[in-house]
Each structure stands twice: as C-alpha cells, then as structure tokens.
TrEMBL record:
This is Histone acetyltransferase type B catalytic subunit. It comes from the Eukaryota. The keyword Coiled coil applies. GO terms for molecular function: histone binding; histone H4 acetyltransferase activity. Residues 367-401 form a coiled coil.
C-alpha cells in the first residue's frame, strides 16, 4: 500500500501554483507577465493551503477583464495517479475551485471561454456613473477609471457581481459572499476605461465596495461599508482611496443619511479611511489649527457629522491624527501635551473599571477577584506606553501622506 509520505514532492503550495489572469485580449492567455497569485487559499483548499498529486502544476484561473467570465484549467507534468499505478489519486483541483463559484458560471473549455472574449468589447458598466479618476501610467499616457453605483434592481448586474465577489475568498481574510437577494445592499464598482487594439473604448473591472444601508428611525439610513476589494493588478494606484471618497460624496449629498460606518475594518482599510477622513476634516472650521490645539470638542463631532457624515468615534481618531499633524514633536511641551491627550482617551476604560470597583466597594461588595484581574498602577503605565506607541505609529504613515 502506497504511503502519502512517499509522495511528498506531489504536495504543492496552492499560493504558488494557482495563477490568476485578467484577460483583455487573446494574446494575454500566453503572457505570463499578467499572472498574479492568491494571498490565501484556505477557504478553497483547507487550512494547509496545499494541493496533492501533481508535479509542475499550473492552475489557471482566468477572468475576462470586463464581464469576468471565468475559465478554470490545469496543466501539469506528472500526476500521482499514474506514478502510483492507480493507488493514489490527485486532488480534483478544478472541481474544488468550481465548488466555490456561483453555479455554472465558469468554463473548462478554453475555446468556449475565448468566445465570450469576442463579445467583451460590448461590456458596459452597470448602474449610474458617480465619479471618475485619472492618473498617469508608466508610459506617460493617462489611465481613466470610472466609478458606478448599482443595486439589486438590475438583475444582469447581480449575475456579474456573483462572479466579481469570487475574488474575495482568495484575497480577503475571513470573507464570505454576501446575500445578493437582500435589497439593502448597495454596490460601487470601479472600471478602467481603456482603448483596445482597434482604438475603441472598452471597460475592464478593477474593484468594488459593498455597502449595507441600515434603516434608521424615522426615515433615515445609516450606510455601513462592508467589503472592499481592488483587484491585484490595480492595487497601489490610489483606486481604493478614490473609491472611498466617491462613496462618501455619494452619501454626504443625501439628507436622510445619518452617518457612514465601516464593518470590522482591516488595518489596511482603516489606514485608507483615516487618510480620506483627515483630508476632508482638515478643511472644516472646527479642525483648523487654532481650534485643534484647544482639544477635542463637541463642535468637531457636530460639524464632521453634519457635513461629512462621520460617526463620533471616527471623528475622535481624525482629531488625534490632525492634532499630531499640527504638533511640533521637537517642542517637548507641545509633544507632551499631545501624548497626554491620547493617553487620556486610551485610559478611559481603565478609569471606568476602577470607578466601578470603588462604587461596588461602597456597597460592601466583594471585589477581590475583580481587582486581581486589573493591572496595578505601574503595570498599567507600561501598558499605556505600549498602546500609545502603537497608535502613534499607525498615525505616522497617514501623516506622511497628508503632508505629501
Ligand atoms: C486594501 C485595498 C482595498 C487597498 O486598495 P488600493 O487601491 O491598493 O489602495 P490605494 O492605492 O488607494 O492605497 C494603498 C496604498 O498605496 C499607496 N499608493 C497609492 N498610489 C500609489 C502609487 N502610485 N504607487 C505606490 N503606492 C501608491 C497609498 O498611499 C496607500 O499607502 P498605504 O497602504 O501605506 O496607506 C486592496 O489592497 C485590497 O483590495 N486588498 C485585499 C482586500 C482587502 O484587504 N480589503 C479591505 C478589507 S475588506
């Protein structure tokens, strides 16, 4: 009986052998410069993110660049089935990936897939255009990106979106597909508008954000940004930053929007958001330098909420960021006053716990166990210093961008 250990060289890292490509043209099929790899694969291939049974394996996951039709295929040198005389079976890679895709929305025949490419020049963005953004490309020409908003009322969009959201399993931690039957979802998609080989404009899909529009009494809504994904070939071009700004402007112009929140933001997302919010707030009266040095104020919360729809917690973060922006860290007095301000906020929970304990003790309650769990003053000071260092480090990157 063959042992799996004998076939260690047939155990492959999925992150290395899965090749994604966005296909604009038939020639792209053979252009390896377009390949990008997934960041994670545990939702498809399990915790170890491995594929068993092949040597020299390439798993091809190709999407047409605009409408995102999907091709799945494998190429390999040898397969364990043959070398083990049928005793071992290679993983069914295509079947496993297909399992994570919306029903019937992929091709395993390359020619059939390429037929959809012939019609890709007809592909148009869905919904309403709400913004655009240009940036210079490496060859000096301009790249044009357009942002669209769409909702469940366009059925063909939902089919397209089902293909678009397949990327998140490979690129966003702990991601799951959203339920597109839920009418509260609002979709924002970014496309690149480019000239194809015939000199005609065509669209390529670049990324998206989903926003859940919660109801708020009596006739208001509170949009919550949920997923955001910029496809890897389009990352670091400023698209996420522009997309967030565009979404903000879209909701800021609506009177019945209470505020905009973000669901469980990743570190990357929080950084982008801080930058966008700080850039907006910097222009507000209550965030002017002379106001900021006086400390955090209710007026900041009010103005940022009314004009930018920011929620109070985020306003406080932006205040700290902008205060650091205006603080001369070489002036010990100024810098110290800044640190105290942030530490006061970081320490608020600790002081609340102490206050609660004292209250309980006044009522002669036994607080011994609870007290033992709390750090003593010295430990707390050390913790606080560490917490502060993390906060300041997080702000520094954003400050550099604000100053650029
Ligand atoms: C996180 C994510 C949305 C960012 O998208 P993006 O379009 O690359 O973001 P931006 O280009 O606007 O900004 C990203 C960084 O690139 C920098 N940048 C912007 N233009 C740049 C350029 N031309 N060259 C180099 N860097 C650039 C920005 O300053 C920013 O720097 P920072 O990360 O230090 O703050 C994207 O990486 C992604 O989809 N990741 C996977 C999914 C995910 O994590 N989503 C968020 C949680 S749901």
């Amino acid at each position: 009986m063959a042992q799996i250990q004998e076939y260690q060289e047939y155990l492959l890292d999925a992150l290395e052998v899965v090749d994604f490509k966005l296909i604009r043209d038939k020639a792209d099929i053979n252009n390896d410069a377009l390949i990008f790899h997934p960041v994670m694969a545990h939702q498809i291939f399990g915790e170890t993110e491995t594929i068993f049974g092949y040597q020299d394996l390439h798993v091809r996951v190709f999407y047409t660049a605009g409408p995102l039709h999907i091709y799945l295929g494998v190429e390999y040198g040898t397969r364990v089935n043959e070398v083990s005389a049928g005793e071992m079976n290679a993983d069914d890679v295509v079947g496993t990936i297909a399992h994570s895709l919306p029903d019937g929305c992929y091709f395993i025949n390359l020619d059939e897939f390429l037929k959809t490419l012939d019609k890709a020049d007809k592909f148009q963005p869905f919904g309403e255009k709400i913004g655009e953004y240009t940036r210079p490309s490496d060859d000096g020409s301009e790249r044009l990106f357009e942002f669209y908003q769409c909702d469940y009322k366009v059925p063909s969009f939902l089919k397209f979106f089902a293909r678009l959201q397949t990327f998140i399993l490979w690129f966003v931690d702990a991601a799951s597909y959203i339920d597109t039957d839920d009418a509260q979802w609002c979709y924002f998609v970014c496309y690149e508008k480019y000239k194809n080989g015939d000199g005609q404009y065509q669209y390529a899909t670049a990324g998206y954000t989903t926003v859940y529009e919660y109801y708020a009494y009596p006739q208001n809504k509170r949009p919550r940004i949920s997923q955001m994904m910029i496809l890897p070939p389009f990352q670091k071009l400023g698209l996420a930053t522009q997309l967030i700004e565009t979404i903000y402007k879209y909701y800021q112009s609506q009177k019945n929007v209470v505020d905009i929140t973000v669901e469980d933001p990743s570190e990357d997302f929080q950084r982008l958001r801080n930058f966008v919010d700080a850039r907006f707030c910097k222009e507000l009266k209550s965030f002017a330098r002379n106001e900021i040095v006086k400390g955090f104020s209710k007026e900041m919360v009010r103005e940022a909420r009314e004009t930018l729809k920011l929620n109070p917690r985020q306003v406080r973060k932006v205040y700290e960021l902008l205060r650091l922006y205006y603080t001369n860290v070489n002036d010990e007095k100024e810098y110290r006053s800044y640190r105290l301000e942030v530490k006061k906020r970081l320490n608020a929970v600790y002081y609340k716990q102490i206050k609660d304990l004292k209250k309980m003790e006044r009522y002669k309650m036994d607080t011994e166990m609870l007290r033992a769990r709390l750090p003593n003053m010295k430990q707390r000071m050390e913790q606080l210093q560490e917490e502060y260092a993390v906060v300041e480090e997080g702000y520094k990157n954003t400050l550099a961008k604000l100053k650029a």
